[in-house]
Amino acid sequence: MSPIHVRGERGQVAERVLLPGDPGRAEWIAKTFLEDPVLYTSYRGLLGFTGRYKGRPVSVQTTGMGAPSASIVAEELIQLGARVLLRVGTCGAVDGALAPGDLVVAQGAVPLDGATRQYLEGRPYAPVPNPALFRALWAQAEAKGYPHHVGLVATEDAFYATTPEAARAWARYGVLAFEMEASALFLLGRMRGVRAGALLVVSNRIGDPELAPPEVLQEGVRRMVEVALEALLEV
Description:
The chain is of the alpha/beta class and 235 residues long. Helices cover 34% and strands 28% of the residues.
């Protein structure tokens, strides 16, 4: 069955793929970091580009928001030949040690989302990233000296449903931040035999009335993508 949503063909998508949620960010990453990026799909606003980074083919594919959308995109990318799926996105911090613009290397994801639960048919499970990709992300963040944190994130569905108090309660169990896609991506990596990981940038602390200043967030995104691309060269 040909992909329904990612309207590409085999050969157009690289084995290594960055997965931002935002189509605008996907375009920015492709045009800023890749050599000769080519748009291979724009269907449903799920922009996908393939170019080269330091001579290696790399794709950047929009996932949209949330685990249901991200899991659809991941499944179809795998059909098209992707073998390394690396989420690059934002998160809301619950741990007080995290500051806007800091990077978070996800060591595992608490599966509070419905997509992961449906794939598992309700079974208990602990979604974790591919070890080699996780190690490469951590090593690159350390080598570059960028402020970063390593630990658990929580994947949720309803962006506005989680209260600051409820989110902070998860900090007692080691959760650093909340986001919306990593859990399903890690699970699909295991199920489909591909390597999956997640590198995030803190956009705010949950409960803050506003996001980080644009220049702080953009610099965090730049650092995140730089670390992610270097890590992709190692796996």
